[in-house]
């Protein structure tokens, strides 16, 4: 089973840069997108359709802002949009599909870089999501894949200039400790780090100062999985071969698949 995640920083922009052709070639089961910056009415256009896939969305109330989506090859048993509090629901930050026992989500955490008010909202989002969702599944055997832009670099290895960013949103001690708590006792697993412990593996670069060309980046995009899938990761790649946005796609393959046909 192949699962892709990418913050496209505007779906129209990413499509103009060739994202659709690239996505077709990946033959993924699910393509989870963040920051689509589009409305449901816009996304009905043929331009946004991917043959063989159904598009599910959770758009922000505000036009041209935030929003998440999932292209799925498989028909879900149920779809959940939002998490039950304003920042998550009004800003289009969460979409979840439940398919044959698998739970797969696209999530876009708030950034706190624009000021204290937004950082406070980010902490609220983190706390609510942990208490209302993540904590609930700590002892569950259900396979869960949470794809998205978490807007937090976990460890020093996950960003180039970690020393000067310790007081900046995205690498604050409180944010990193929250991820520590998440991964404690391997209740949840950072699927990429399960396969790759190398330095300078980043998924986001500022547009300023030729950061991408110099690989001065941050790893803030994740596929975080439940412990049931820990031994099922075959491959985990941050694909930097093409540029669709300021983020790179994550392309992960899992041995687990609820769609595999039974052979007698």
Word description of this protein:
The chain has 264 residues and is an alpha+beta fold. It contains 7 helices and 12 strands. It has one domain: Endonuclease/exonuclease/phosphatase (Deoxyribonuclease I, Chain A, 4-Layer Sandwich), CATH 3.60.10.10. The chain has a 6-stranded mixed sheet. A hairpin with a 2-residue loop joins strand 6 (94-99) and strand 7.
Based on helices, strands and strand pairing, what is the structural class? Answer: alpha+beta
Count of the separate structural domains = 1
- What are the secondary-structure elements, in order, as H or E? EHHEHEEEHEEHEHEHEEE
CATH architecture: 4-Layer Sandwich
The major pleated sheet works out as:
6 strands, mixed
Please tell me the overall pLDDT: 95
Distance between the termini: 21 Å
Give the CATH level 1 class: Alpha Beta
CATH superfamily label: Endonuclease/exonuclease/phosphatase
Q: Report the C-alpha radius of gyration, rounded.
A: 17 Å
Please tally the helical runs, counting DSSP H or I stretches of 4 or more residues. Answer: 7
Short characterization:
The protein has 264 residues and is an alpha+beta fold. Helices cover 22% and strands 24% of the residues.
SSE topology sketch:
Layout: E1 2-7, H1 11-16, H2 19-26, E2 30-34, H3 40-43, E3 54-58, E4 68-72, E5 78-81, H4 86-90, E6 94-99, E7 102-108, H5 116-134, E8 144-149, H6 173-183, E9 188-190, H7 191-195, E10 221-226, E11 233-238, E12 250-254
Parallel strand pairs: 1-2, 7-8
Antiparallel strand pairs: 1-12, 2-4, 3-4, 5-6, 6-7, 8-10, 9-10, 11-12
């Amino acid at each position: 089973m192949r699962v892709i995640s990418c913050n496209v920083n505007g779906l129209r922009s990413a499509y103009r840069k060739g994202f659709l052709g690239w996505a077709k070639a990946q033959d993924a089961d699910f393509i989870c997108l963040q920051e689509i910056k589009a409305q449901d009415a816009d996304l009905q256009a043929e331009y946004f359709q991917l043959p063989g896939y159904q598009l599910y969305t959770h758009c922000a109330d505000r036009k041209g802002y935030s929003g998440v989506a999932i292209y799925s090859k498989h028909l879900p048993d149920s779809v959940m949009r939002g998490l039950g509090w304003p920042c998550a629901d009004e800003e289009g930050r969460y979409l979840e599909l439940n398919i044959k026992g698998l739970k797969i989500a696209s999530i876009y955490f708030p950034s706190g870089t624009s000021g204290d008010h937004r950082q406070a909202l980010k902490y609220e989002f983190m706390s609510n999501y942990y208490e209302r969702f993540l904590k609930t599944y700590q002892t569950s055997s259900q396979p869960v894949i949470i794809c998205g832009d978490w807007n937090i670099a976990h460890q020093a290895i996950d960003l180039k200039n970690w020393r000067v960013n310790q007081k900046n949103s995205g690498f604050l001690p409180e944010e990193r400790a929250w991820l520590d708590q998440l991964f404690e006792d391997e209740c949840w697993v950072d699927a990429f780090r399960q396969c790759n412990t190398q330095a300078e593996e980043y998924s986001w670069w500022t547009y300023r100062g030729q950061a991408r060309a110099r690989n001065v980046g941050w790893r803030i995009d994740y596929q975080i999985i439940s412990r049931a899938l820990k031994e099922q990761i075959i491959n985990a790649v941050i694909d930097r071969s093409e540029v669709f946005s300021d983020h790179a796609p994550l392309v992960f393959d899992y041995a687990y698949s609820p769609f595999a046909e039974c052979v007698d």
